[in-house]
Structures are given as structure tokens and as C-alpha cells.
Amino acid sequence: MAEAPKYEMPKAYEPGKVEQKWYQFWLEKGYFTPKIDPKKKPFVIIMPPPNVTGELHVGHALTATLEDIMIRWHRMRGEPTLWLPGVDHAGIAAQVVVEQKLAAQGLDRHKLGRQKFLERMRQWADKCRRTIAEQHQRLGASCDWSREKFTLDEGPSRAVRTAFVNLYNKGLIYRGERIINWCPRCATALSDLEVDHKDIQGNLYYVKYPLAENDGFITVATTRPETILGDTAVAVNPKDKRFKTMVGKKVILPAVKRIIPIIADEVVDPDFGTGAVKVTPAHDPVDFDIAQRQGLELINILNPDVTMNENAGPYAGLDRFDCRKAILADLEKEGLLVKVEPYTHSVGHCDRCQVIIEPLASRQWFIKMPPLAKPAIDTVTDGRIAILPERFTKVYLNWLENIRDWCISRQLWWGHRIPVWYCSDCSKLTVSVDEAKSCAHCGSANIEQDPDVLDTWFSSALWTHSALGWPDDSEELRYFYPTTVMETGYDILFFWVARMIMMGLEDTGDIPFSTVYLHGLVRDEKGEKMSKLRGNVLNPLDTLKVYGTDALRFALTSDISPGNDIKLTTPRLEAGRNFANKLWNATRFVIRSIEAEQANIEIKRDKLPLEDRWILSRLSRTTSTVTRLMQNFQFGEAQRQLHDFLWGEYCDWYVEFAKIRLRSGEVPSPLPVLVYVLEASLRLLHPCMPFVTEELWQNLKQRLPSGWQTTESIMLAAYPEADKKAIDPKAERVMESIIEIIHSIRNVRAEHKVESARWIEAQVYAGELKSAITAYSEVIQTLARARPVTFLDSREAMKSENVVALVLKESEVVIPMASMVDLEGERKRLQKEMEEVQAEIAHLGARLKDKAFLSKAPAVVVDRERDKLATRRDKLERLREQLLTKFQT
Ligand SMILES: [Zn+2]
Ligand SMILES: [Zn+2]
């Protein structure tokens, strides 16, 4: 025996103490850092970097758990395994958080200035980064902290500038005036993906535009009347006969009295409104395209804070919605407002602050997406990248096939500044990875860097290769890229996954990962999405304190399958905690037995009793099933199988059988198999519940001969492989029958509320399994509390009167009623009770016929007596039935 100090296992599992101890141990030993071994193919996950906007939420806990399960499993299989953690600067999202904090102090970023503001942002990001790392550690995440990255670190930042310059040089990045989504609160452009479209109950306003040359009008319909100020045409469909004579004429724009033409364009829907539409190229994407085709002027009527600018004439300076009211009043006065109809339409809101966005023409940087999308489509259609669940493949392809150019410039300060310098002498652009000191064209030092930063998703798109050192040709990049699995939520398939595939291919010429595993959303017990607004958020750290990390991990993933939403509920957390406790108790029992027996724990395979062969066979089957499920990303089902095997077979049956054998001192001792199955099961379960399995495994290891398990930690021990030779169908068949017999007798005892001290009788007919099962009569009697249990040769020999008869899979069981209850006593008790009830019925009946009572008593009292009579009659009926079933005569 090893000399390591043994300590008594506490009665109950205390996760708090155990978790911290083992995480520190793993960390100090450097287990999370893989060794580069060119002979082996690595398993790699780059962690989706949480935003530096605060703490981890339950969605992050799910991500961390699923990835840790995969990582621990592959590590135990001997693969060099890298899980690279990191955090995202989260551009607009983080800037909003810090700006809110500044506002609370009466400050804003402009008062602070760019440098001071960025310092504040850095401090905030550092704080979040530490919190996030601590929280991941509490969740048991076995990621390689020595490689932790931040999107704004020098390496990833250089990757961003390099990718930008490469795309610019290839003509795939351009600066142009386009309609973008403008958030007035955040004061920045947003990409289409950052806009939430919500149906809003608004109005459709019909406005008359007077013709310029002669009398008459053309009527247009609009939901945003203030944009009339920016109209540069009225358009109709060229096929629309109603307006045939109007095309080419001019109208006078109300309010600002500008003369604009009536034009024909295919895009106009003759069925919308009046069939004639106003064209506002600077504030509508469709109108912008019309203007491009027809050479119309763009008139921007808004300031960045969405007050009206000088182009709005008399309305200049008004807020956009005040302007709407003012213009409607004026139109009404002039008799130009024809009618107002209620109208539900989709309105874009800023995904970060929920303010209504304003589409407006603006000079921004864009990436030309179709040339990048094409190869990204191919990688999925030709199977180089698999998306799980498969149904998201269609969603992915559909989005890429219809992709639009990506607006990547943001009018923010927090992020990667655009690596472009403008020359005030020759007005040309210098685009450079390194800080430019002078103009690349004329050498002038009068240059100024673009003040804007890049969309935060630009750096995210590079994450799989930038986190591994790209653009440098590092050993890490060569060995760990392409990575293996990208595990993330399905809600960021477009934001992130698709863009990583496009940019990975563009920058490295290779796919960034071969499998995309998309998990669902975490919902509450009612199926509602957890959100701060709803107030139903379960803080993962609060649940950890109460239930333990393993219980939370179990609750989050024990029912999960790719793409499906999961419910996190208190009963599930309790189930996780109970499972950990069950394992704790079983291990304590095994350890106490080892200490008491000092037995040899070598399994003698040639003379194993039935239950030993059975549990070894079941272990073998469970091992191969779980391995197959893990390979297929069915982590929920894998955990369910392990839970059912450990709880429902090992703890509930094998341990119970073993207790009887240990008490009787039978040879061979069950200890070798008890230990063997427990130890292997702990390894099987380790990826899912790392802390309790390590604690139990270490406790077990201390009491076993040295050399029996040589690794220092369960996380380095080999993942069990199924022992095909252990499969024993005969043993499984007999054991299942024995279990079924005991189980059914216990059920009957429970149904008939037999006191636990009472022994009942049973007859068993087991057909061809008779002799195999009879050998276990002592165990059956003990575990079912039935004595005697008689094994019969034929079905005919079984009792058939006053019995409970059970037909099982391979046997039949009969239990005489008399053995469960004291028949004579029971009959007397029932009869006495019936007599009492009958007397009460007679009394109540007489009372309710008594005219004096009926006339004097209040109605409620009479009703109560009637109710009483009805319940007594009902009770009498039930007693009569009981008497009949128990004493069939
Ligand atoms: Zn916003
Ligand atoms: Zn120049």
C-alpha cells in the first residue's frame, strides 16, 4: 500500500472545498497546456471570447461546460488537446456600458477626450477579464491560461491591420457612400446584423404633392413624413397606366417648395399606397438604389444626433419626431394631408440600446462580401466543414448566397482603429499595417488617421487564426490550425461563424475548423428565454454556491442535443447534486470495505459469480455506448447513460449484492469488481463532472496498491475502452430477471403499505432460468424482504386465490394476500368500520327525514348534513369493495 496520508471522507460531499483544491492542483501541474507532438493530430477548440461587458451569464456556463466535456474527453484519449481562452473587447457593447458609468458621474467621453476615455475602457476591460477568468475556473474549465488572448492585444491587433490591408490591396475593402443603419444614441453606423426589426403600430400618411406646371396633384403615402424634406423625386411603376401621362412632369415638394421630377422605376410596387412613392435617396436603401440608377441627387436632412439639419429649411434644429409633428400640422393647414391610416410596419432598432435607428447615406468602409462568400459556401457543400445540427446548413448557405456588403466602420473610440491615413496635401490614402508617419504618395507628414474603429466582429472573424499567432508563421499556427470544433450558440451563426469561415479561408487558405457545433438557448422552467428584462436569469455563480459546479454542469448538459434549447430548473440542479451525493456514498462504502478487508483487488476472471460478470458486461456496453455518443456530439445522452448505469445498476444493485457477500465473508470477495467498476466509471464520467470524480478517484487511489493507477490525476488517466471479452449476455439475462423479481415484490409491498419490519411470502416460477435464479434465493429474500420465496417447477403449482399475481418478462411471481396483512384482524377491522359508518348513515338519514329539524334549521346546516350523508355512503361503498378484493369468497 502507498504511504500517502489517508484521510477520512466526510459524510457528505462538500463541493466548495473540493473544487478549489483540485482546480489549483491541475493549474499548478500545468495539465491544461498541451505538448506539441508532430506525430499526433491535436484536438483544438478556440473558446468563443466572452465580451468585456460584465460577468459570465448562464449561456457562457453552457458554452464552457460543453467545450470542457469535449476537451477533457479528448485529453484522456491521449490527444494533444488545446482549449484556448480569450475575451473580446466588444466594441459598441462595452463602450455603452462604460459610457453609462460615466454618465452616472456626470461625465461623457467627449469631456474626457479620446486618450483618457480609452484608459477608462482599458481599466474596465482588465477588470472584466479577471472576473471572467475566475468564473471560468470555478466552472472547471480546463483551458490553457498560458495562451489566453484579448482581441485588443498586440498580436490580434496586428492580425486585424494585416487582414484589412490585404483586403484593401485586393480591392475587397472600399470606402463609399451607402445607406447605413445609424444609431443616434450610440452615434455610429451599424451593420445589418446589429439591427433588430420590430413590428410597430404606426400610421400611413397620404400627402398631396401639387404639380408644378398645371393644376392637379399626385398623392404619395409614407410612414415617415419628415423625410419629405429629403425627397428628390416621385416614382411610379412604368407599367402603371394610371400615371402614364404624369411621368416626366414636375411636382412642388410641400413644406420646402423644391421642384422635383416624377420618374418611372421598375422597383415601385403599384399596389402599395397610391402606387406613387416619394424617393428619399439619402434615407432609404431602396430609394438610394433608385437614385443610383436614375442619377438623382442625395439630400441628407439629419444631423448625427437626428435633429434636422440646414437642408430641412424651416424645420432645422428640430428633433426628428418633433419635426414629424410640425410637418404634419403644416400639411394639414395647407390641405395637403389627404388621410391617415393606422399601419403596422417593421422598424429597425439598435441591437445594443434599442433606440430606433435611422437609415441614412453616409461615407463608410465596406467589405465586398460575394467574393468571400463563394469559397465559404463550397467548404460546407463539399463537406470539409460539417454543421451540427444539420438543419442549420441550409440557413448558413441561404444567408451566404444572398449576402450584402458589410459596413465595417464604426464611429466609436473603443476598438481597432482603421489603419488608413488621409493626406491633407495630395488627399490620397495611405493604408498600412504599421503606424504611418508620412504619406505613401507624396511623402507629406500632413496626414491624419481615420478616426473610426472597425466593427468588433471584424476581429472576431479572425479569431481562430489570430489567437494562434497569425500573421506570423508560428509553430503553434502550423500545429493547431485548422482547429477542430467551433462550439457556439446558433444565434451568432452569421455574426461570427460564417465570417470566421470566410476570413479563415481568405487569410490562411484553409478552413478554420472542421465541425461547427451549435447549442441552443438556456431557458427557464416555463421555456422563456433568460434575460435581465424578464428577471428570470439564473446567475451561474449563485447556483454553484448552492449546488456545486458538477451539479450545474449536469443540469445544463444532461439533456442536451445540438441546436435544441435547454431548460435550467431547480429540480435539474437538485438531480445533479443528488447524483454527486450518490457517487460519494457508494465510494465511501467501497473505501470502508477496502480498509476493513485489506483484500487483494486483483480480479480472477475465471471464477466470477453471476453478478460480477453482469456488472462487468454492463460496464463494457456502457463504455462503448458512451464513447459512440461522445463521438457523435450527443453529450446529453452520454451523460444519461452514465447516470443510469452508475445509479440504477451499480449503486442500486451491484453494491447491494456486494454488501450481502461482504457480510457473509463469501469467496471470492466482490471487492475487486466493486473497485474496478467504480474506478472505470469515475473515468467515464470525469469529462462531465470533473470535480467530484477527481476527489473520489484520489480517495480511491490512496487506498489501492501503488502501480495500480499510475497517473497523478484522473484528468490524465486514460479514458476507458470497452472490454469486448466482458460482454456476457447470459449473465445479463439472469441478473435482469433477478432484479425484476426483487423490484416487483418491493413494488407490491409499497402498494399495499406493508410495514418494513414484516416479511412477506412469495412464489416464483422462472421457467428455464429456475436453477440460475434459485441460486440467488438468499439475495432475493434479503433484498425483497420476502421469506420464504419458493421456486416452483410449473405455473400450475402456483397459488391463485387471494394473491397478487405478477407476470414479468421471464418469470411470474405470486404473493399471497395473507402474508402481507393479518387477514382475520383486517377482516374484523373492516367490518367494525363498516358497522360504524352504517350507524352514522342511519342517524343522518333519520335526521334528514325529521320535519321539525328541516323546518327549524337554516338551509346551510341542512345542506351540510346532506353532504355528510353522501360522503358516508361513499365511504361505505369503498369499504365494501376493499372487503371483497381482499377476501374473495
Ligand atoms: Zn444604439
Ligand atoms: Zn500625400
Task: Report what the structure shows.
The chain has 889 residues and is of the alpha/beta class. Helix content is 45%, strand content 17%. It contains 28 helices and 29 strands. A four-stranded antiparallel β-sheet has the order 6-5-14-16. Strands 10-11-9-12 form a four-stranded mixed β-sheet, covered by helices on one side. It has a four-stranded mixed β-sheet with strand order 27-26-29-28. A hairpin with a 4-residue loop joins strand 5 and strand 6 (188-190). The longest helix is centred in the C-terminal third of the chain and has 30 residues, at 635-664. The radius of gyration is 38 Å and the shape is globular. Bound molecules: zinc ion (2 copies). The site of one zinc ion (ZN) has 8 residues, from loops.
Summarize the structure.
With 889 residues, this protein is an alpha/beta fold.
Alpha carbon gyration radius: 38 Å
Tally of strands: 29
**Average predicted confidence as pLDDT:** 91
| Distinct small-molecule ligands in the complex | zinc ion
Distance between the termini: 67 Å
How large is the share of residues in beta strands? Answer: 15-25%
As residue ranges, the low-confidence spans are: 1-5
Q: Please, how many helices?
A: 28
SS content category? alpha/beta
Kindly report the spatial arrangement of strands forming the biggest sheet. Answer: 6-5-14-16
Shape: globular
Largest sheet: 4 strands, antiparallel
Indicate the percent of residues in helices.
Answer: 40-55%
